[in-house]
Structure formats: C-alpha cells, structure tokens
C-alpha cells in the first residue's frame, strides 16, 4: 500500500453494537469467500483441518473479496435504513466469492439452489461447487443471483451500471470498479457516462473505485499516482470523490458508514432537486475511492513474503496446504481467525442477530428483480410495421434508403415506448439515416449546451437516442439496459462493429448459459445490432471502412443465441426489425445499408420471404419451376442488386438459359438443421440449390463464410461464392464491386464459365462483359463520377 | 464554440514579418485542403470558378484541417529554430488534407510522387487524386509520406505516438488528439502511457488535444465540460495542460508560438534533468489544448446555417456548387479569401519566402525517416534458437511449458537488442510463464514505487517489458514501435485478443497497402502476437476465457500479410518464433500454451517440420508409407496430444489399422496455393490427406475454420473436423476436451465410425470408449482432481 493511513477521527456513525455486528457479518462473508476457495469438507471447521478437507485444485481469487464484501455489508445497512433499491455490479474480475457469500448469507442462494441450503451440508456443497468441475465459475457468472455482470473480460462494469440505471429512477446501481479493470480503455471512457444520465428520469450510479493496489502481477496505475492526481482525474470525469482509506477495520467501518451515507444523501438531494424543479442540469455525482489492502484480513505473510497488501494475495494466498503441513496450519489459523463458531449456529446457519442485518425479500441485493431483468420486462408496444411499407409496384424500379424507412418505424416504436426503449449509435444515427427517430426523441445530452445546438442538434436532456463516440460504452449501456429488462437497437458502421467483437462474444456466452441452463433467469430482450454503412458503399471512405467480417465472429457463437439477417430491401428490413425487436435472448445482427437502394418486394412478399428466410424469386428466375441450368444465389443488398443485373444481362444474351434466382435473408438457413435451429434440411436445401447444377452465389461479406456454413451440403462442390476479398480504396461503387468480382459483369462471366451449355457459345458475351469492366474502370478513373453511377439501372423484365 | 475568447494580451513571440509569413503559410495549407476537396481543375483559380472545375462527387473532411495545419505551421517554426526531430500523428479521423497539404508544401510529396509536382499541373493532379477513384483516401493512409497513423478507425493516435517515442530519445512525437476520438475507450486510457515513458532513454510525446467542438453530428464531450473539469482531467492524466483558445488568427498565432515554445522548453528541461542526473522520476509532461472553431477560416454561414464553429463544417461545408450558382460563388469567395495568387508563384510553386519556413531534408515532418521506419530498422541480433531446445529423446514422454522455454529464448533476444526490442503483455507476462525475460529486463514502471516492489515485482524505470491492463494500449504501442522500425512480441490471453480485433484489422490493411503498392515504404518488422492461455486450459477460468475465434478474423485479411502458426510443442515454438521475429511486414499469430505439455520433436525434427509447415509424423503413423485406412490430422498442442492418444488407443485395439498421422503447424498450408502463398498445391495436399480416405482432423479452434480453408480440396467430403464448439464451464482439462469432442475417446469413436473396415468389428471398442468418457466425467465431478489429470499419459510405442 502506498498510503494506508486512516483519517484520525472518523465520525462515529455506527453505534458499538451495530459496528460489532457489521464486522461479524463481514467476517462471515470473508470466511465464506476463503472457504469457497479452499474447502471441500469440514465447512464450519468443526474438526481440525486435514488435507482431505482441502480441494485437490485450489482455484479462485481472494484478493478483492474482502473489499467487495466490505462495501456490500455497508450497502445492506443503508438499504435497510433508507429502504433503498440497490443492485451491485462487481467489476474486479474474478472476485465472485464476495458476491456469492453475500447472496448465500441473504438466504437467496438457497432459495434458488435448494441443495445449497443454509446448513452445514448446504454450505459444504456451496463451497465445493465453487470453481469445481460441474460447479460454478469464479466470476459473477449468470448462475450468480443478483448479477448482471460477469466480468470475465474486464472493462464494462460502469457502462453496464449506467445501462441498468437508465429509466429506473428509483434504482441505485453500486458499481465496484477494480483498479485493474480501470486501466482498460472501455472502463476509462465509461466514466463519461455521467454526461448521459438524467437525474429526473434515470436512477443513480454510485461508482466505488477499489484501490486494491495490485493486478495479477503488477501494481495498478491508479493506486500509484499521487492522491491529488487521482482526485483531479475523478473530478475531471465529473465526479465528487470521497476517499475511504486504511486497513483498521474498526476505523474503516466508521469511515465507510459515514461516507456511504453522505453519498446516498447527495444522490437523493440531487434527484429531489432535479425532480422538484424539473431541472436536469448535470450534477456532480458523488463517488467513493476505497483504498484497502489487497487480500485484507488474509494471511499477512507466507514463507517470508508479504501477502496481504501485495499482488501475492491476488489468487490463492497459500498454495500447498494439502502437501505442506505448515501451510495447512496457516490456512486453518486464517480461517479460524473469522471465528466461524460465533457466526453460524449449530445447524450451520448464520446466527439470528446477523441475519437481521440483511435486507428482506426483493430488497436483498442478491434478489433485486432488476438483476433478473426478464422478470420486469414489459413487452414493447409495437406499431404495425406494415404501415411503413415502401410502395413497390415493380421490382427494382425505384430507390429508397432502407435505414431511412426503418427510422420512421423506429420513431414510432420509440413514441409508443417512451420509458423502456432506446436507440444507441456512435455519433452516427443521422449519418446512418435514422434521423426520423429524432421526431420522437432527441439525443441525450447532459453536458453543456450552446445556443447553436438549436440548429439541427436534436440534443436534449430527456432524449432517448444515445450517442457517444465509443462503441464500447454504447454496447455496455445497451447490455445493461436489456439485462434489466428493457429494449433497444444499436446502429453502427459495419467496419467498426469489430471494436466490440469481444463484448459481443461475452454477451452471447452469458445469454447461452442463462437461456440453456438457468430456468430462474427470465428471458431478456435481444441485443439488436444494426450493421450499416456497409462495405459496398464505403467506396468513398476507403479501405479502413471496408470490413464485413463481424459475421464470421457471430457464427462462432452458440446457435441458441445468434441470428443474422441480410434483408435485401426496405420492406424486408421492416419485417426483420419487427421480428427482432419482439424477440428475447438473442443477439440479432441485421445487415442493412443507409444508401438508397433498389426495392424489390412489396410488403406481403417481403413478409413471406422473411418468414421463410430464404426463397426463390420467381419474377427474377427463368426456370419456370423446372430444373435450372444455373442457380444464382445472393445475400445482402448490393449483392442482390448485382446478381439481378447479371440475370438481366444473361437473359438478354441467352434467352434459353434457365436461371433460378435464390435470395437469402436469414443467413443461418444455409446451415444444416442439426447445426442451427434455423438450418434447412438437406432436402429443402437441395430443392433450392439442386444437387448438381452450378450455383453462383453473390455474398455481402467474405465469401468463405458461405462455404463455412454450407460445406457439407450435397451440391457444395458446385457452389461458387463471390464476396469481399480485401480489395478497396477510393472507388466508385461499381468499381469497388468489380475489383472484388461481385459485380454483374463478373457474375455473368462466371455463369458462362460454369454452365456447360454456354461453353463456346458464350465466348462473345464474355468478351463484351470484359469490355464493360474495362470501360467502367477507365471511366471511373477519368471522370470520378458520383455515387449515382449504379443507380441508372432498373429491372426491365 | 462554448468559449472563443482569447487571452487578452498574448506574448509577442513572433515578430510581425514572421507572423505574417506563418499566417500566409497556414493560408496556403488551408487553400490546398479546401482545393483537394473541391477542385478537379483550375487549381490556382487563375480563371473564374466554373462548375466543370468542381469534382463530380465532393468528399473529404474540412472541419479539423485548419486546426491541424495551424499546429503544423508552428511545429515547423520550432523544428527550424531548435533543430528538432519531430514526427506528427494526426488523430482526428479524416483530416488528411492538412497533413497532405503540409507534405506538398514541403516538396516531399513531389519527391515521392513526381507527377504531383510543385507547379500548376502537379497541383491539379494533387487535388484531383484526393478522394477520387484510383487516387488516395481521406485519411492519412500509407500513401501519405510522414504518416504512421491512418486514423480511419479512431482511438489509437496517442498509443501510436508513445510507441514511436520509446527508445528514440531525441524524437518528439506531436500527437493531435481529436476531441471525437478522445471519447473512445482506447484513447481515454492511452493518456496513462506517460507512466511508461522514461525521460532518459525515450523520446517525448506532446499531445495536442484539439477541441474542435464537434463530431459528425454532435458536440464532443470534452468541449462541453467546464474548463476546470477538463483541466482537472488532464492533470489527473498526469499532464500539465496549456490552453490555446480563440479564433482570431493573429492572436492565436502569438499564443501558439509562445505555448509551443514553452512546452518544447519544458520537454528539453525534463530530459536534460533526467539525463544529467540519471533520474527517471516521472515528470509532469506538458500538453496543449487547442480550442479553435471547427472549419476555422471556412464559410461562416451557408443558407442561414452557421457553418464555421458548427458540426456542419465537419465534412464538405458547401454541398452543391456544381448545380447551384450561389454555392459556386460561395466556394469561390472562400477559396479566394486565402489569396492563392499571393502564395504561389507563376509556375504554381509556393513562393520562396514561404518555402523558407519549412524545415529542410529529413527534418521535414513529411520526410522524417522515423515515419518510414523500415528505413531505420536494424536487424535483430538473434541468439541461436537451437540453444534453447528441449531434449526430446522419445516423443511424448515428458512435459514442458512451451512458453517457459520461449521465455528463455526471448530473454536472450532481449539481452542482445536492448535498444530496439520490447515485449508487451497485459499484466500477464508472468502468468504466461515468460518470466525468464525479467532476467534481461524488468517491467517498465514510472509511476510511484513501493518498498514491497522489491519482492518479485520486477518493476524498473528502464524495464523493456511493457505491461498495462489495456490490450488496446499495448497493441497501439507495439504498432507505433514497429512502424518506426523496431521489433517486439505481444503475448496475450487467447480469449481477450478479440479486444484488439479491429486494431489487428486496421494494421493488416495498412501493411497490405504499404507492402503491395508503395515501394518507397521500407518493410517494417512484423507484429508478432503470441496467443496463449489457450481455450483448452481455461478449464479453471470457465466459459468467458474460452474463445479461440481470433484465427477466423485473421484469415479474412489479405494473404500477403497474415500468417498463423500452431506449434505443437516447445521446440516447434522456438523455430516458429525465430522465423517470426526475423520477418518483416506480417502479422504473425503464434498459438502456444503456457501450461506444461508433452514434447514430441527434437530440435532437428522440429525445424524440418516447421519449415514444411505440415507433415506426416511417421513415428505416430502405422501406414508404413502405404495408402492408409484413415488420416488423423491435427493442429494445436492439446489437439495434437489427444489425436496421438487416440492413435494409441486405436493401435492397441486394431493392430492392422493403417493410420497416417499429419500435424499442421502453418495453418495456411491448408489453403489452396492460389489463395495463399503458403498454400499447398492440390497434389501435395492430396498426397497427405489422400483423395478418398476418411480424415479425422482435431483442431485447436472452431472446427468450421478448417472447412473454410479446405472446402475445395479433393477429399473435402471425407474431412471431419473436431474443434471447440462453445461448450465449457469449470471443467477438468479432459472433461473440457470431452464435452467438445476433441478428446482421445471421441476421436477414436469417430475413426471407428468412418473407417469401413471397422464397421461392426469396432462396436465393442466403441462401447468401451463411451464407458471411458462416462467414467472420466463422473470422476471429475466427484473428485474435482487437478490439472495433472491428463499428464499421466505418455506415448507407449
């Protein structure tokens, strides 16, 4: 510890009895935390500790547990005293023992998992399951009641906390931020979330920065900068920091009790002022810095090495009690220092006077319904999406921006659900043409205003569109929002959704466990990711903005929880969006562009097509239902347009060619039925793609993804996929398509090359097609020409 | 602008002539920036502006250009005055016109691209190429001389800057941080890089936070918090901020001149003190906040909307000059306001008195060799990697931690290269068993020390191991370090390398352009990513730590620049690491675990195997070179061990079964030769995997990736891949393998199912194998057992 001095005379907030009992409760937490790590038997130490009582493999993280439990004990006091509505988010990585201990002492763990009962046998099972095969993990996994934040990957505790607080005016979200995770980028910027929290309509977030001092193997940066630098930093983040520092439990209890009461008092005063005066002016929210020794109350020294207050306390402080009798003695002495016999009664249950300290029922942090958000979830009041349909009398005859149409629908979803629906986007909601939403609600903005903001700024303290230039923070908010039972949509540039690859992975993993294994967790609204500003219209932004690879990341996750849709036009997008917004427990990825695109299907046809997820477009086919010469498949808007244009070229040149045109909306239709619930049977797949005819498939993303999904289909060897292959710079849209060979000309050439009956007879056409390619490239480089270039095409048939 | 007041009486640092000429130079920059966006002809406005002089499609970002050029002009003055060695990093996204203009005015652009000469014709081409098909992008792309930071994806300017400054004691890296990018997580935490910069041996980073006020469509957070909050924040980050604020160029020039001189003076004083006294104590480094109107000097108002100082100045301030004559007039008036006729001579070259303002030769920011780091790159002095070999007398008879062995090699690479090699890792170098490196050099640490640090802390001001709990910052440092010509290795947990997916993507794109299209960019050392703490040994950390999907992201990038290696043991890892560290212009991904693993190949065999990248292990095969009944393939350490164990089971049960055992180190060997330079020909592939026999392939990562690479191989329909499929929790290692079916028993069952001659006769064995699976699962759940579980296996044959 750089500084462990405590304030000399802390206020005496706690009377001696309360203090003593709170300290005992805290000792019970610490006992349980250590017990989880070490014991497979003899849970109450009713006999001398023997090697066979110790787990074969010691796993878990002790270091941050005592500090976390310390906060929990004090939160409990205030919850009871002030009837607060509090949830707790545990940021410091593996510190689940603290949360689990608290949950068990509150009785809620045993309510959910009856065999881990409040008695000796239950405690044995409770200890044993921890970090044990077939048991539970060492983070606050979905199995942990009261948790909405697992924290296996660090950095998202604060943004999750804010997401939970939005639109929950009575909720206080206490977020313990680890000083390790505080070094991550996502956490570092998420402090600014306070510029997006409205004290009138939203709840409060109380960050508690835990200066535990060390990570796995290093000191933490924030624990090793001067106190005044840290204070400046937190003040700069917009907070009013209070420091609770030291290592003497008695002094620390008084300090924490007084400080927490001060903070909650300020929070209530801020909210009351804002609500009484309808004044959302951004306040300076309080926060706490808790500087306590890592592994507090644990072994001070082992084998001559300092442990308490050192990185050596991070995981298992004493490594070898099974084989080393001296270590065994140390572990026993440590565990007995908490005096379990004075904390638990004869049956092994927490003694009555300590049980009294915990809140009751749904006020218990472990049982707060906000942390099982599905239970509180209200179904969205959805406007009929058909009302927003684009009029399509003839396929491919007019251009519309799909996201612009979607924006109108989302506007009314917003209007109908002004307390439980939000839209998220990194400064791009307007760029992504979802501007209509602002008619229903502006952009949340609690930072300073400017007279110029009136001019198109759409900023407002009670806006429901969340824009900050941090995909991490937005995704974190959104996850916190859905995990507490509310709904939303996150629109982001396709190339930069990779910024949140790892967050997507972690959320998908959470959902999978919660959905598949935990009946008590109610389904939560889906994460809806609208991936837009797509690769094929990043001809102007260039190579950095061209990356459609997020879909590859998505397809690696469990088929139980991921869905991918590539609606080819606006009406399909409406149908898909309606479906996704109503769904639960998925991550829905919708790929749809913001630029004006050709429209193909009227609303009825779109609904039918999207319901099937994949289908033959008869109007674009020439096989008259018979076995075709070639199947042209496609998925994605530009891919579809170019495929249709190729059909038109081919029809004109080869009127007898039998083409079947298949469009894919629901990408997982391509997978086998045993591999994904949306997968087509082989029979259905074969009936669409034939068992032997060439299939030319034009794909939105990297071509290999289609192969990854279809490699074991009957006709796979005849499947030839065109897609993005990392060619791009500043181009015209058609040029970009050409250099990646997803353009009409390249597709038509490929068809000619693959269809036996066109061999030879197609040579002249191929020559013409190659000429077209060269002509277009030359023209683009000479004249530049604008993005209207490929808009002079409509469907002739 | 929230506040645009300037300090009333700025110091008169510049004499009137200098001030006037610097302002003219700045106007030349601004003229060129605007010209790039608008003009395809009439570059010097020598005739009245007509619609045909304007580009058909107006692209580019004006908003931050004038502020950036303003800084550049002032940097130039000090470079000349003090003979400074400066590179510039442009953080604000699309603001390349400023960098390009400066480069062109310095003459360096014309030296590299002679047709974009310093005359009217050259200027026309220079303008026209910008954001034009076949031309260059609107970021500081690799085509931009003087740039090591493209900035298409935001957030990495500061970490790139620090990476460039490490081990370059005389270099000053001026980093313009956009207030938009400042909201990203990676940027927000990268401010703390100053705790890792040693004033004795490293150069300096001068951050200039550009409070430009707006992003695409929103104000920025940092521009809308009170001045004292911002000052506190930057102070909290460890800087001493100086503010340059206003909009009156004359006043601002004096302010910036004085402030920049002050800052450079402080930097020099800090360095001199540290170097004279050998005192690396972390100083409070200066920085600048430049608050200037967005689109400064551009149109004040268009169609009644404020433009200068508003988000409307972000991109193209006047949209329709081709079709709207009023707009055309506005554009012309704006461009003429810079008085190009007074800036460029008759030939179109910058007038002589202004040329004088630019530094000369390699001191020009655009020509500083550090920004073409390959030119300065010194080859690593490599110790012979064979010296670190593990003694392997019999395959699979002893266990060693591969990364521990690698650590010893890296220790000596470090010792031999103490000024141009660093190792990066997020608090995990020790956890990843690379501890030996600390014998050569400790962990860089300039934050406060503590007496306890002496106990195993390995912290040191001149350490060369970079550890901070931010993968973003580490990757940013590493990229900055290699792009300026130095070498390194980044070791990180497999699951969390996804945190930098998007950074990997962007760096790969940079490399591809630089390597394929820009002969003048010298090859730079590769980014070497050691992916460790692998999925199969995350049985204790659980599901969140199990994600081997980074390889899918990597395989989407250009085959010119990505390489993936899965060395099966320590000797192979040494061979691969030696190869990677010597390479240039790649991202090498090495997948190798930290836990003890069986060793298979002696050093000679390892070198031969790694050189081929894929090969038959005769000692594990039973086909005696004849056509086998089955091929067992594998890639990855645990995958290899389980595959070998399966072979042993099969050999014992079915002595006549002809098994061929193929191990893959170089994953891209699986791809066709036309798709990747490492790809095998079909002939070679077929000779390994046969054209008709079942192939059971045990893969480290998600199975579908192997299908993605091999789908068009002759024998693909008989290829059956086992891999991770998102099943995991707290397990024993063997249990984790079993539930994902990459274990020996499941593999053997699959072989029995696929080999025709075992049909029926294998039923008894299958029953036994299924019994083994159940027995192991039961035992694991009952006893827990430790990670030694699968270490009681050695190769019997």
From TrEMBL, chains A, B:
Xylulose 5-phosphate/Fructose 6-phosphate phosphoketolase N-terminal domain sequence ranges: 15-375
Q: Which cofactor does it need?
A: thiamine diphosphate
**Which family would the database say this protein is a member of?**
Belongs to the XFP family.
* Keyword terms, alphabetized: Lyase, Thiamine pyrophosphate
**What is the protein named?**
Probable phosphoketolase
**HAMAP family in the record:** Phosphoketolase
One Pfam annotation reads: XFP
Q: EC number(s) per UniProt?
A: 4.1.2.-
PANTHER family to which the protein is assigned, alphabetical: PHOSPHOKETOLASE-RELATED
* Record-annotated Xylulose 5-phosphate/Fructose 6-phosphate phosphoketolase C-terminal domain positions: 594-795
Chain segments annotated as transmembrane = none
């Amino acid at each position: 510890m750089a500084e462990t001095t405590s304030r000399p005379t802390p206020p005496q907030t706690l009377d001696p009895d309360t203090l003593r009992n709170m300290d005992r409760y805290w000792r019970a937490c610490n006992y349980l935390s250590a017990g989880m790590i070490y014991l497979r038997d003899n849970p109450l130490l009713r006999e001398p500790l023997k090697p066979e009582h110790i787990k074969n493999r010691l796993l878990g993280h002790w270091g941050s547990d005592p500090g976390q439990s310390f906060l929990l004990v004090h939160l409990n006091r205030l919850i009871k005293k002030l009837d607060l509505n509090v949830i707790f988010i545990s940021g410091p990585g593996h510190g689940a023992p603290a949360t689990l201990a608290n949950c068990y002492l509150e009785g809620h763990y045993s309510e959910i998992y009856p065999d881990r009962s409040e008695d000796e046998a239950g405690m044995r099972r409770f200890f044993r399951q921890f970090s044990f095969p077939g048991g539970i993990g060492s983070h606050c996994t979905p199995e942990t009641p009261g948790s909405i934040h697992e924290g296996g990957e660090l950095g998202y505790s604060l943004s999750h906390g804010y997401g939970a607080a939005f639109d929950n005016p009575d909720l206080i979200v206490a977020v313990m931020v680890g000083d390790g995770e505080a070094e991550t980028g996502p956490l570092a910027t998420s402090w600014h979330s306070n510029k997006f929290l409205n004290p009138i309509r939203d709840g409060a977030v109380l960050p508690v920065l835990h200066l535990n001092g060390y990570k796995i193997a290093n000191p933490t940066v924030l624990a090793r900068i001067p106190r005044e630098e840290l204070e400046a930093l937190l003040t700069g983040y917009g907070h009013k920091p209070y420091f609770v520092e030291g290592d003497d439990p008695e002094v620390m209890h008084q300090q924490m009790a007084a400080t927490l009461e001060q903070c909650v008092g300020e929070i209530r005063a801020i909210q009351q002022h804002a609500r009484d005066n309808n004044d959302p002016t951004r306040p300076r929210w309080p926060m706490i810095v808790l500087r306590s020794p890592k592994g507090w109350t644990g072994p001070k020294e082992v084998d001559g090495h300092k442990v308490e207050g050192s990185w050596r306390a991070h995981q298992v402080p004493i490594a070898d009690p099974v084989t080393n009798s001296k270590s065994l003695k140390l572990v026993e002495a440590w565990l007995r220092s908490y005096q379990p016999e004075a904390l638990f009664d004869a049956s092994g249950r927490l003694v009555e006077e300590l049980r009294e300290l915990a809140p009751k029922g749904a006020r218990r942090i472990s049982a707060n319904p906000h942390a099982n958000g599905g239970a509180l979830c209200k179904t969205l009041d959805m406007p009929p999406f058909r009302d927003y349909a684009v009029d399509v009398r003839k396929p491919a005859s007019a251009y519309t921006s799909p996201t612009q149409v979607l924006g109108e629908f989302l506007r009314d979803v917003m209007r109908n659900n002004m307390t439980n629906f939000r839209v998220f986007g990194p400064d791009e909601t307007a760029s992504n043409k979802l501007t209509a939403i602002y008619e229903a609600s502006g952009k949340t903005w609690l930072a300073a205003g400017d007279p110029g903001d009136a001019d198109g700024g759409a900023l407002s303290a009670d806006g429901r569109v969340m824009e900050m230039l941090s995909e991490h923070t937005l995704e974190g908010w959104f996850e916190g929002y859905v995990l507490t039972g509310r709904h939303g949509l996150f629109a982001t540039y396709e190339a930069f959704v990779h910024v949140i690859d790892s967050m997507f992975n972690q959320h998908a993993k959470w959902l999978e466990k919660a959905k598949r294994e935990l009946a008590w967790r109610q389904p939560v609204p889906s994460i809806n990711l609208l991936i837009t500003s797509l690769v094929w219209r990043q001809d102007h932004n260039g190579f950095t903005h061209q990356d459609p690879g997020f879909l590859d990341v998505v397809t690696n996750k469990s088929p139980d929880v991921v869905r991918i849709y590539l609606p080819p036009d606006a009406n399909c997008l409406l149908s898909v969006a309606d479906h996704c917004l109503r769904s639960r427990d998925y991550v829905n990825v919708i790929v749809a562009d913001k630029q004006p695109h050709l429209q193909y299907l009227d609303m009825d046809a779109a609904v039918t097509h999207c319901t099937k997820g994949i289908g033959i477009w008869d109007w674009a086919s020439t096989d008259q239902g018979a076995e075709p010469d070639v199947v042209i498949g496609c998925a994605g808007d530009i891919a579809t347009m170019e495929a249709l244009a190729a059909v038109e070229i081919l029809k004109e040149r080869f009127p007898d060619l039998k083409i079947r045109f298949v469009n894919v909306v629901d990408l997982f239709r391509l997978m086998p039925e045993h591999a994904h619930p949306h997968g087509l049977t082989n029979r259905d797949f074969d009936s669409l793609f034939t068992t032997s005819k060439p299939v030319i498939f034009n794909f939105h993303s990297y071509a290999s993804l289609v192969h990854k999904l279809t490699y074991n289909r009957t006709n796979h060897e005849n499947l030839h996929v065109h897609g993005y292959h990392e060619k791009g710079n500043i181009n015209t849209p058609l040029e970009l398509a050409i250099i990646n060979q997803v353009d009409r000309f390249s597709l038509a050439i490929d068809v000619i090359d693959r269809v036996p009956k066109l061999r030879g007879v197609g040579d002249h056409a191929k020559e013409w097609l190659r000429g077209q390619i060269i002509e277009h490239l030359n023209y683009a480089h000479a004249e530049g020409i604008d993005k209207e270039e490929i808009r002079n095409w409509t469907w002739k048939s």
